[in-house]
């Protein structure tokens, strides 16, 4: 099973263990893993903290590179959802066995954030939740799905929807309240957000 029918989000993320140079070069060096596999390993916003816990468990700090997929596509880069790995994205060059168009660097990296945690007492999922709450880790597919649902609900009274590729359960009721429940892995219970609104006339 793949996510081939799901659009690649506008922003995907690369985790690196050391601070990138400033100013950014045209192209950052490939990691050993990326060079070996022939593509650049990336994560969407919902997956990046889990990827950090899997591959950067021994690091006190990492840097997140926010990659603008629209710019990369213009240069010829090709994004593919990883098979059987929800939230994981692979970036290939425009032609087989080349890196042409597949680069991380000046012009393609939109922003960089340093994440620092208390090693041994805090995992990356908990640490990076703050970045998500501040809107920096953007899951654009989720936002678009919510907006689409809200539009449909203008003609309905209630809906409960499980969002694709996530643990998000949406309960939407009009004209008064939208409930957002996010089941967090490794935590008991649900964290609930509440947004008030009114039905459009």
From TrEMBL:
InterPro entries: DUF952 (IPR009297). Signal peptide: none annotated. It comes from the Eukaryota. This is DUF952-domain-containing protein.
